[in-house]
Predict the 3D structure of the following.
Amino acid sequence: MTMRPTDLAMTRRHALGGLAAVSTLALASACGAAPLAQGAFPVRYSDAEWKRRLTPEQYFILRQAGTERPFTSPLLREHRKGTFVCAADGNPLFASSTKFDSGTGWPSFWKPLDRAVGTSADRSYGMARTEVHCLRCGGHLGHVFDDGPKPTGLRYCMNGDAMLFRPG
């Protein structure tokens, strides 16, 4: 098989594009908020106990401030009436009536339930964001942004693996 110079250039271009895509996905999948101090929350367990209680995906997100890949959570397509709760401790977080399709690939809400979540500054990756965590266990849930719908104008962009859905 004979390759023309343009074939070689196209192959290099595809390879470099693929590497860039993989790098971008790796960065996006490790959202990077620093884990919160364990002692500040009413629900506390040792690291070994959290690993026993949670799936590997839940542990990565809730205890290591990771991020799931976009468009992978079954909760993205959850439209029944009910409550989204913390996967680590069952704390009610969001009413289904506040969920909306943000098009970002993560379950999004315009308002949490009262006394359900806390926030902290996240300055990882050279960005200034607001991390959202469970108020009972401190588990990382996602981030909140100011580009959401009325009435709050907020978008709570949550990791589906950090939550469970309770119909009702």
